Structure formats: structure tokens, C-alpha cells
């Protein structure tokens, strides 16, 4: 049985003429222990899909089953509890609270479960040691580098021992070295049995995933399985091919140029005529004053 099962899920935002279809009857099945990457251009529905899987949003139409349980129809309170216990989130901008140190940021989800402060601190310290941040537990977010802040965010995502980790562009603000550290950490978490869902624009990161799905205009247009360590073929073909200029592109460019030329000609003539009148007037006034 699949851990995640979406059946013709659609998501509509707005009403009437202003309505936007973010997801269009998406069906998806994810097995337990998979490392799946989600790719696609901006506005293709990647984040909306992750929000629904992560129980941050509800579908307008369709069914969502999590571990065989229909969760798309649960109340908001029951969804919040299930999200807290089963799903961990890693965001592009870390989302660490600036007034709390690293230890308190990581331990914060445990406070909502009613755990005592001593047990929270012990659990958070163990997780920070796991991600190599034990010596930074009393630092504040502004004292951390981007890679350190993201590792702290990963520790917070792991604090409740979730079965699913959703990472939305986790390396988007990091340099290549920090990106490698974060991805190796996610890979290690995957080897321990967690299901990883990674949203990314970087085709290089598909090397860590065993499956890549491609989205466009709210639909899944491709689903590719690839060996770990190898870049997905479709991702390589899309993101590394050279753009080609077609005859239609040239025609459209010429048409746009021809439309601009008359306007510019009229504007330039107008600008030229006005200064001439002013200069002649000045010359006449100067001549008269001399006389």
C-alpha cells in the first residue's frame, strides 16, 4: 500500500473570473521510503502540491490518502495533529524564530506536545548533534551561516521523528558547498527509512532522488525513475539544452520593432523642433539687446 495516494486532486483559488486553477486533477502515488524530487517552472503547482501533501492546504476536489487513511476530509484540528506527528518541513528561508536560540527553535514543536522543558532540551540536543550543530545550540539565527541555519531547520523537522520530510527548495539560498552538506544530510535521513519529497529547480539535485516527477500548468507531465547518483535524463535535456531561435521568434521580433519605429520617429522629430524655436528666440533677444 502506498504511503501517499492522491486521486484526481484539484486546487482552485479565487472565484469567478479571478479563479486560478493551481492543480488540475493530479493523481500521484508515493511508496514508503522513496526519495522523490519535484521539478517544473515557477507557477507549475509544485508548492501547492506539497502544501496539500503536507496538510497545510485542502484540495478543492479529489481525495488524499495518507498511509491508507482518507485525510483530505478530516477537520483542521485533526489534520494539524497528524501533520505535527507525521510530517516535517524544511523551507527555503529556514523560518527560524529570530528571538529564540537554535536549541529552543529546534525544541519548539515538542512544546506543542506538552513535553517538559528538560526532555525538550535533551531531545533537541541529540538531534542537533546528529546534524553537526551541537556546538551552535545557544547561537541565535542571525549568528549562523546559511548552511548552519538550514541544518538547524532540518533538525527541527526531525524533532518529532516524522515519516515524511518535505523540503521546498532547501538549497535555494545556499552556495554549492553548503548545498552539498544539506543534500548529504537529507540523503542520510532517507537511508534511515524516511520518505523525502524534494522541490527543486536544480537538475543536479536529482542525483539524490530515485524518482523525479515533472509538473507544468498544474499537472504532472512526466514521471521518471533514475538510479541514485545519476542525474535524471529528462532534467538534463530540459535544463542544459541550448535555446534555439525559430522563424516565428524572428517574425515576432521584427513586427514589434516595426511598431516601435514610427512612435520613436514622431517623438524624436518633436524633440528636435522644440529646441530650435527656443534657440532662435534667444538669438533674437540677444541681437536686440546689443542694438
What CATH architecture label applies? 3-Layer(aba) Sandwich
Reported by name, the CATH topology is Rossmann fold
Assign the CATH superfamily.
Answer: P-loop containing nucleotide triphosphate hydrolases
- Enumerate the spans where pLDDT stays under 50 for 5 or more consecutive residues: 264-268, 277-291
| Cα end-to-end separation | 104 Å
Instruction: Tell me about the largest β-sheet.
Output: 6 strands, mixed
Top CATH class: Alpha Beta
The helix tally amounts to 8
Estimate the strand proportion. 15-25%
Mean pLDDT: 83
Radius of gyration: 28 Å
Strand order of the largest sheet: 6-7-8-3-9-10
Please count the beta strands (DSSP E, at least 2 residues each): 10
Principal-axis shape equals: globular
Helix content: 40-55%
- Summing up helix and strand content along with how strands pair, one would put the structural category as alpha/beta
